[in-house]
Description:
2 domains; seven-stranded antiparallel sheet; 30% helix; globular
Amino acid sequence: MTAAATTTRGWVARVRHFVRKADDVQCELCGAPLLSDHPHLFETTKRRLYCCCRACALLFGNQQNARYRPVPRDAHYLDGFRMSDAQWDALAIPIDIAFFFHDSQAQRVVALYPGPAGGTQSLLELSAWDELVADNPLLAQLEPDVEALLVNRSEGVRDYYRVPIDQCYALTGVIRARWRGLSGGREAWDAIHRFFAALKTDGRVPEGLLRA
């Protein structure tokens, strides 16, 4: 790993809407009220996620050289994904849950792992990532900024997902809201288990489940 991991500024603010009450949610671009099943846009320069109405998603997300990118809808469980314990160790992530995506501003793949204070960024040795891509060519197809590889290796699990970036932010919000003490506590881990179960079964985690 290159430099020591650093906490990403602004992550706490950016995940707050995943733990708000449903009636607090409105389009962050025009102010219109939103249904629970609303689209998201991603602002690449600030690495910020916006809840938006469908009209704003179409208007701002389809402009050429747009500042906003539309976030894909569904996640996909990657059955048969290849990652050995040695490859995971080479990525030098200090916990067993993390996501990886291509940051177009940094022009490189970055790793983020969730915790009680938000998300912490870790710069990868690109050779370790390149080896993983060689074994799993679909990683080269991830949309920059808005799609990620989400890895769950906690409690002996070995699960891998191709996910929209909003689901990574959602998981970070869940952990931030529920984590207690050093180990997280039963409430936090129950919520994490529900999150991954819904992601694997349905391809998306309903916002109501995130607030349960």
